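In keeping with the milestone schedule agreed at the kick-off meeting, the structural modelling team has produced records for the first pair of proteins. Each record is given below as a sequence line and a structure-token line. The laboratory manager (R.T.) confirmed that both were archived under the project's standard naming scheme.
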Amino acid sequence: MDSLYLLIPLSVLLVLAILVGLWWAVDRGQFEDLEQEAERILRDD
């Protein structure tokens, strides 16, 4: 039972860190043009 007092706040912090990372990626435009990045691998430079 004592370990739950540690694990529950740590899991909440982990979820918040994941949400902040996702928000940061969306705000920076990481997911704006997925088609061009997928086709970039196939093109020869």
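The second protein of the pair:
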Amino acid sequence: MKIAVLTLGCKVNKYESDALIFTLQKKGFEATDALEWADAYIINTCAVTNEAERKSRQMIERCRKFNPSAKIYVVGCASQNRPSQFEKKGVVFVQGVAEKLKIIDHLLSEGEKVYDLPLEYEDDFFSAQTKERAFIKIQDGCNNFCTYCIIPYLRGRSRSREARSVIVEIEKLPKSVKEVVLVGIDVSSYCDKNGTKLIDLLEALDRFGFRLRLSSMEDNLISEDFVRRLKKLKNFCPHFHLSLQSGCDEVLKKMNRKYRTADFERTVNLIRKYFPLAGITTDVIVGFPTETEENFTETVNFIKKIGFSDLHIFPYSNRKGTVASKMFKDLPKSVKEERAKVLAEIRKKDKIDFIAQNDILEVLIEEEKNGVFFGYSKNYIKCAFVGGCHVGEIVKARVIKPSLSASICERV
């Protein structure tokens, strides 16, 4: 029996899907992550925005084009949020976020099962890492309860994987892996039941020789001690994805974010004190319901002041069940789109400026397409090489043509 496991959403979902594939293969199934013909499909859904949920539903129809008679199973955040949305889609079985591996037990079942969200980290997920960059899940859930976000209600409270378990998985990584990315819903809150904090875990992992990279971080994680200890690590990749969301204090307060712009700026300056060419990327929500033109202008000016290496721009999505959806009236779509365009122009300039500041980069080659090799530098600049490389190699390079997609580089 061939089963395709298809993923929408974040890196945590991708890790969990890989674990599903690994477990299916151990049980004797033929399993793949490719959207192709299969006897059955497991769709690991996302609910971070309305659009993400819509794409999760659309994936059902995409699967049916390959095999109209296939059995389709749905798991994840969208089904945790509203399992009924899949009932009329011909889905055989619907499950939520918790106990994802149990979907395998339901492959010959029909119906719906949304387990209670766990209070402790579910440590039964192990994936077979075959790429040059391995994603390792260390944390789940979130305690922040930002007013625009539904994820804490779907993923539950923050819970951390024991450091020893993380180390055991990393010890088993194949030699093809050159970089490890630690992922979670709120990695900044990592602290296992033995008191091991994120910086302690990073120091313990540095001895393995893999490049170490963190996924999204919160401002409250970054202290002088934290960054000083990071600087001592041999293998840390200086890329900090700090979620800003707004450059206006008034909007940040209504979002229930725990910092203000002055705090965020101090954090950026601290990072650049120890890592002058660190890649500092961020997320920004445009068109939050209370965001006035003056508020948006503050955000524009703050983003220009910081000079991010890249921006991820999201028009506000009104999520039913969040505090913001109950308290505030949504802004017109046209307003959000226009503001997104303004930030997109700033992104172009700042990203090219950041790339141009770099001299020699250390790049991990991760894939090859039609004779062109692609990879990322330690500070997260995507690089492209025309020949002269092989996948899995770490090369020294210089950018000869900056680009928003992949900068053309040469080996040095």
